[in-house]
């Protein structure tokens, strides 16, 4: 039976959640602070720890640091389940080895159970055996494919070999079929909105999120939407596509990477660049300006995937880059024989994004004169370049 250590100072949260976990077949130990958690972990050696961040005596981040420094505890996976969304806390948790971060205000029991099972499947083999999974009426899901790609040290790979490894990683990971379907339909001039709406309805949770965004204060025109058809009238077909892509991309890459990249901070910058890029392109009368949202949203995907694939090797590269005060693109090319922009181009090509979106996303880091020489649509790339710089500022 899988043993869970649940650490939270609030009994009103801790005890009901412990009861739910026991109902789903887990053996549960509880602790009210980080100090108690370390004692319990050493006594019972749990398979996984659910850890709050803010607690008296010893907080969750310090507890995680102690666990990572203890040879008996360092391999135990940790899910941080907390009410705190502060960036610094998330970053410190990542540095302490926490690979999953869930907010109490947003999680559901089903999501937590799924996250626990996924984390256990990707933990070192000696932590979980086939008979330790909680009973379920459904067949066990396949092991997470993204962890099956083994990457040699950076220095042993040429740029082409690393790109091939990344291509393999992305092909086995793949984006959700509903996103592939929506992107394919919105690329075709023959698709009707009803076909797109039908694709989104395949995922009821996605449909509800699209509606929620369509009714948000960001879109100030039109009557409130009560159906996907209303949402399309309110935000447009490209808006439906952009919102769907944003929701599914963020959900797909929602966990802190092995290199310590924090998705919340990554997607905040990407979304800001997306919004600014679309507006700048419209002001500059750039053709297909609505597509600059997609280019902005995905312009740094190469960084996220390199961080995911290379893990600590990429973290070391980033640390050396900061110490030597070099620009990221230049330093990546010195170390990897390619840059995250090359990886972004490869990913967006795999995802069959429009050519002008791929071009803007993969050239936005170049000097202005290089963009004017190389780009088929320089104004599109320059719009995204400006959006990226404003977003950083």
The number of distinct helices, counting runs of at least 4 residues, comes to 19
* SSE class: mainly alpha
Distance between the termini: 51 Å
Radius of gyration of CA atoms, rounded to a whole number = 22 Å
Please tell me what the overall shape is: globular
SSE order in H/E notation? EHEHEHEHEHHHHHHHHHHHHHHH
Main β-sheet, in a few words? 5 strands, parallel
Q: Strand order, biggest sheet? A: 2-1-3-4-5
Strand content: 5-15%
The average pLDDT value, as a whole number, equals 81
The helix fraction, in percent, is 55-70%
Are there runs of 5+ residues with pLDDT below 50, and where? 124-155
**Number of β-strand runs:** 5
Secondary-structure map with pairings?
Layout: E1 3-7, H1 11-23, E2 27-31, H2 34-44, E3 48-51, H3 60-68, E4 78-82, H4 87-95, E5 100-103, H5 109-121, H6 159-173, H7 177-187, H8 193-201, H9 204-214, H10 228-252, H11 263-283, H12 292-298, H13 301-310, H14 312-324, H15 328-336, H16 340-350, H17 355-363, H18 368-374, H19 378-392
Parallel strand pairs: 1-2, 1-3, 3-4, 4-5
Helix pairs in contact: 2-3, 3-4, 6-16, 7-8, 7-10, 8-10, 9-10, 11-12, 11-19, 12-17, 13-16, 16-17, 17-19, 18-19
Which descriptors apply to this entry?
393 residues; 5 strands; globular; mainly alpha
Give a short synopsis of this structure.
The chain is mostly helical. The chain contains 19 helices and five strands. The radius of gyration is 22 Å and the shape is globular.
What does it look like?
The longest helix is centred in the middle third of the chain and has 25 residues, at 228-252. It is globular, with a radius of gyration of 22 Å. The chain has 393 residues and is mainly alpha-helical. The protein has a five-stranded parallel β-sheet with strand order 2-1-3-4-5, with helices on both faces. It has 19 helices and five strands. Helix 16 (340-350) packs antiparallel against helix 17 (355-363) and helix 17 (355-363) crosses helix 19 (378-392). It has helices at residues 11-23, 34-44, 60-68, 87-95, 109-121, 159-173, 177-187, 193-201, 204-214, 228-252, 263-283, 292-298, 301-310, 312-324, 328-336, 340-350, 355-363, 368-374, 378-392, and strands spanning 3-7, 27-31, 48-51, 78-82, 100-103. The chain is 58% helix and 6% strand.
């Amino acid at each position: 039976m899988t043993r869970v250590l649940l650490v939270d100072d609030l009994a009103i949260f801790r005890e009901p959640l412990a009861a739910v976990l026991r109902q789903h077949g887990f053996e549960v130990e509880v602790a009210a602070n980080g100090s108690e958690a370390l004692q319990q972990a050493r006594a019972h050696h749990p398979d996984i720890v659910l850890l709050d961040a803010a607690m008296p005596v010893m907080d969750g981040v310090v507890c995680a640091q102690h666990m990572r420094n203890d040879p008996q505890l360092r391999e135990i996976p940790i899910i941080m389940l907390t009410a705190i969304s502060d960036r610094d806390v998330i970053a410190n948790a990542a540095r302490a080895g926490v690979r999953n971060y869930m907010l109490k205000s947003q999680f559901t029991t089903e999501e937590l159970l799924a996250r626990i099972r996924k984390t256990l499947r990707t933990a070192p083999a000696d932590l979980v055996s086939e008979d330790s999974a909680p009973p379920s009426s459904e067949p066990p899901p396949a092991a997470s494919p993204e962890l099956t790609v083994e990457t040699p040290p950076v220095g042993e790979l040429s740029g082409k070999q690393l790109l091939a490894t990344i291509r393999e990683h992305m092909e086995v990971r793949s984006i959700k079929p509903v996103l592939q379907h929506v992107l394919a339909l919105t690329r075709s001039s023959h698709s009707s909105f009803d076909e797109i709406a039908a694709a989104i309805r395949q995922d009821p949770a996605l449909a509800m999120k699209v509606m929620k965004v369509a009714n948000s204060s960001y879109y100030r025109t039109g009557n409130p939407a009560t159906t996907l058809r209303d949402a399309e009238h309110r935000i447009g077909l490209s808006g439906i596509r952009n919102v769907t892509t944003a929701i599914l991309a963020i959900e797909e890459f929602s966990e802190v990477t092995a290199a310590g990249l924090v998705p919340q901070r990554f997607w905040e910058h990407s979304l800001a660049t997306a919004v600014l890029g679309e507006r700048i392109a419209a002001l500059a009368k750039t053709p297909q300006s609505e597509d600059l949202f997609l280019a902005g949203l995905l312009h740094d995907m190469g960084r996220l995937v390199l961080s995911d694939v290379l893990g600590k090797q990429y973290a070391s590269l980033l640390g050396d880059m900061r110490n030597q005060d070099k620009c990221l693109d230049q330093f990546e090319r010195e170390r990897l024989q390619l840059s995250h922009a090359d990886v972004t181009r490869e990913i967006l090509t795999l995802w069959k994004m429009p050519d002008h979106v791929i071009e803007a996303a993969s050239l936005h880091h170049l000097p202005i004169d290089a963009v004017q020489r190389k780009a088929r649509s320089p104004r599109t790339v320059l719009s995204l370049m400006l959006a990226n710089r404003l977003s950083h500022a």
